[in-house]
Design a protein that fits this description.
heterodimer; A: 70 residues; alpha+beta; two-stranded antiparallel ribbon; globular; B: mainly alpha
């Protein structure tokens, strides 16, 4: 079983962007960025790629898979 | 909003004609009136929502407060359903006023929902993939609730455990579906806003 690990908060802080600024740049609501950061909502592939592009990092650095036992 | 009220009045007039026609042919129109009026009010909401494009739009909604909008719709639906069911059994002014108030609230919220839908088209970020996923989940939940309530009420009536009319089973299932969808969407939006 794999689990999605999200490093969006760290990368966003490093890029000096607020949730609202990132949301506007990728065309979603701030609420959506918040839920992605908290692991409540798993973004689609296009949204994940847009976020990575705005942050200037490869998508695997923002989102990665972690193997879970069982 | 004016258009919605005019539509509701138009459909109300139609309800009067239908009721009058039933009474003319010797049928007990009074017993069916609440359902006729309620059904036509829902039709007027759908008609306006489908064909009317408002000239002015409200300010962009605060995404963090969308759950109140869905809870309001649920409240209006509950008031209307309760008044419709009870009015059929007991004629009373408070029940009639409850029906009118819930229909008024429902009409206002339906008008707002229509305007919001246009805002979403103009600004897709307001109805992004998270909000769409919430809506899909709520619709799935609503479908399940409708089916389950229809099966339970139908079974109770079929086995003569509780004497229910076919109309009540139908209205009950429809009401349960609408409520389940609205409340689920309200809850998902509230959860995301925390």
């Amino acid at each position: 079983m794999s689990r999605l690990v999200c490093h969006l908060k760290e990368h966003r802080a490093r890029a000096g962007l607020t949730q609202a600024a990132l949301a506007e740049a990728v065309g979603v609501s701030r609420k959506t960025i918040n839920t992605v950061e908290n692991g409540v909502f798993v973004p689609s592939t296009p949204l994940a790629l847009k976020i990575a592009r705005v942050l200037g990092v490869p998508v695997e650095e923002v989102f990665s898979l972690e193997e879970e036992e069982g | 909003m004016t258009r919605f009220i005019l539509d509701a009045l138009g459909f109300g007039l139609l309800a009067g004609l239908v009721g009058g026609g039933l009474a003319y042919y010797g049928l007990d129109a009074k017993a069916y009136m609440p359902f006729i009026v309620g059904g036509l009010a829902v039709m007027s909401m759908w008609f306006s929502d489908r064909f009317y494009r408002p000239k002015s739009l409200p300010a962009p909604p605060d995404a963090k407060r969308m759950h109140w909008h869905y809870l309001g719709l649920a409240l209006a639906g509950t008031g209307m359903f309760a008044a419709l069911v009870l009015l059929q059994r007991h004629e009373s002014l408070p029940l009639f006023l409850l029906l009118l108030a819930s229909m008024g609230l429902g009409l206002w919220l339906a008008a707002r929902q229509n305007a919001l839908r246009i805002l979403y088209k103009q600004n897709p970020a307001l109805f992004d993939e998270r909000a769409q996923a919430n809506q899909r989940r709520a619709e799935k939940w609503a479908f399940g609730a409708t089916l389950e309530v229809a099966v339970i009420l139908g079974w109770l009536d079929h086995e003569q455990i509780v004497a229910l009319s076919g109309a009540f089973v139908g209205f009950g299932a429809a009401y349960a579906g609408v409520m389940a969808g609205l409340l689920m969407q309200a809850w998902l939006e509230w959860r995301d806003a925390r």
